[in-house]
Design goal:
Layout lengths: L1 H18 L7 H15 L3 H14 L6 H19 L31 H20 L4 H5 L2 H9 L9
Helix pairs in contact: 1-5, 1-7, 2-3, 2-5, 3-4, 4-5
């Protein structure tokens, strides 16, 4: 239970840190970002692909938005793989050095056990955080998935030195 509380605090700290980087999106854009996360979470992969594609087209290119777009590309690529029953991680889509300050878990390459899962986990947490910050209309639905995000982060607690 103590570890879960630590990771809850870690997630809250990450969301608060991201607030200063995420500019207000129009409600439609914020909803598309939230919908992309939710569609992937509910394993509605064709919908996740469409939602990611729409959200990417609505997000301007600047600052944290590059990392957000990359996160959406990573989730879309994973949704495409899962929809097509392909289970090999596409490692060509990864956060760049410029985007890494915005990801929730930044580890040196030698501490990453599964690079594909690491990229996807970071992408999902980043998208979730931006959706929580920018889409008040989806706040209640997103709150129901907070435990899922905390469980994702729990897998990194030792690497983050939080155990």
């Amino acid at each position: 239970m103590e570890n879960q509380i630590k990771m809850e605090q870690y997630l809250t700290g990450y969301i608060n840190r991201m607030r200063s980087h995420v500019n207000g999106f129009p409600a439609t854009t914020a909803h598309e970002i939230a919908s992309a996360f939710l569609a992937f979470r509910f394993r509605l992969y064709p919908n996740a692909i469409q939602e990611c594609t729409r959200a990417i087209s609505l997000i301007p290119d600047n600052g944290v938005n590059g990392a957000l777009k990359k996160a959406l590309l990573i989730v879309r690529a994973n949704a495409e793989d899962l929809e097509n029953a392909q289970f090999t991680a596409d490692l060509t889509r990864a956060f760049s050095d410029e985007e890494r300050p915005y990801i929730p878990v930044d580890l040196p390459p030698d501490r990453i056990e599964d690079p594909g899962t690491f990229q996807l986990d970071n992408a999902l947490v980043l998208i979730y955080a931006v959706a929580v910050i920018t889409s008040p209309d989806d706040e209640e639905t997103l709150a129901e998935h907070r435990k899922f995000i905390v469980r994702l982060l729990m897998g990194y607690k030792k690497a983050l030195g939080l155990d």
